Amino acid sequence: DVLRRPPDRFQVVGLAAGGRDPRLVAEQVVDLGVTTVAVADPAAGVAVLEAVTRVAAERGVAGLGVELLTG
Questions:
Q1: Cα torsion for 7, 12, 15, 21, to the nearest 10°?
Q2: Are 15 and 28 within 8 A, CB to CB?
Q3: Rounded Cα gap, residues 69 and 41, in angstroms
Q4: How many C-beta neighbours within 10 Å does residue 17 have?
Q5: pLDDT digits (tens, 9 = 90+) for 16-54
Q6: Which of 10, 25, 28, 44 has its CA at a distance of 20 to 30 angstroms from the CA of residue 69?
Q7: Angle at 30 between CA 64 and CA 66, to 5 degrees
């Protein structure tokens, strides 16, 4: 919420998450335009990327390239 209020003052380039809620991570990635995502649970990595693709399509965001780090 703090980062969304003055969007011109901050640029979020990375996001770290456990990976338990791929949809929530995806929404944050798309909303904030994050380019790098670190997920603690390697098994959740694919689910997060799939969720990012779905959320981006739902919100009409194209060309969102996301680098995924796991472990």
A1: 20
A2: yes
A3: 10
A4: 19
A5: 999 999 999 999 999 989 999 999 999 999 999 999 999
A6: 10
A7: 40
